[in-house]
Amino acid sequence: MSYVEKAEREKLDSYINDLAEDIAMRLSGKPNKLGKKTAQQEEDISGLYKQAIIGIADTIIDRESGKSAAPSTPAQKLGQRIFEVAKEANGGSQMGWFGGFNYSVTRLIQIVPHIMVVNLEWQAEFRYFLYALTAGAIEQSALDIRAKKVPANVEWAVNGLVGTLFDVKDEYKRRVNISYEAIQIKKSGDCYDVPFRTEVVDVKDPEGNKGFQEIMMDFRGITQKKSEDKSI
Fold first, then answer.
1. How far apart are CA 27 and CA 41, in angstroms?
2. Counting beta carbons within 10 angstroms of the beta carbon of residue 140, is it exposed (0 to 12), middle (13 to 18) or buried (19 or more)?
3. What is the pLDDT of residues 138-173, one digit of tens each?
4. DSSP for residue 215
5. Mean residue pLDDT across the chain
6. N or C terminus of the chain with fewer C-beta within 10 Å?
7. C-beta of residue 10 within 8 angstroms of C-beta of residue 103
8. How far apart are CA 39 and CA 140, in angstroms?
9. pLDDT, tens only, 34-92
10. Are 197 and 169 in the same domain?
């Protein structure tokens, strides 16, 4: 995640939470704050994430294009707030909202599962299927944004949005899914047995808390199950 100062985060958090609550209500199929059930597919978290991300991105593109239509959805309101906070912090908007956009999407994909568990809709905040659906939604959003026709003077904004989303997806893999995979390897065993691979080993931090780390290993002559390749 790109660095966003605490004061700027605090200006975005309530908008991120509103969007997360809206998505969670849609997932649960419960009425929204107006007492009306949504027509959105209520179990499609990937579709809801994609709708939200594109709503944020479209609002940012509109603001960079000089359009100022009042936002009406939680996603549009968050997009406008990201733009405003960047403008306040940088004395102008151009390129200042990248960090806020990164932070907002990063927080959103963590808060929604947390709400679902707190509301007893889900049993766990992270499973592999959730990672796959979330990563797919982020990447598909980036591809759809890339395909948008925009004026030449805001092409840079599209490029930045796409690059930021792929960065969010990569960090979600590195910071969250890799830890989950390490725990599953320790629990159920590895599914890789090629001569060159990483191995998950136990480690402890200075306070004695147990964790895991990957090390790069050469298993030739040590563990040869399927492959007897001796070449490097």
1. 8
2. middle
3. 999 999 999 999 999 999 999 999 999 999 999 999
4. E
5. 89
6. C
7. no
8. 22
9. 444 444 434 589 999 999 999 999 999 999 999 989 999 999 999 999 999 998 887 66
10. no
Q: Is residue 136 part of a domain?
A: yes
Domain presence at residue 155? yes
Q: Both 49 and 126 in a single domain?
A: yes
Same domain, 160 and 221: no
Q: Whole-angstrom Cα distance, residue 73 to residue 78?
A: 9
Which domain, by its residues, includes 196?
A: 192-232
Q: Is 174 left (phi over 0), alpha (psi -120 to 50) or beta?
A: alpha
Amino acid (1-letter code) at residue 69? A
183 and 197: one domain? no
46 and 136 Cβ atoms separated by less than 8 Å:
yes
Q: What is the dihedral of CA 56, 35, 109, 59, to 10 degrees?
A: 0
Structure tokens, 97: 């909202």
Mean pLDDT of 6-17: 96
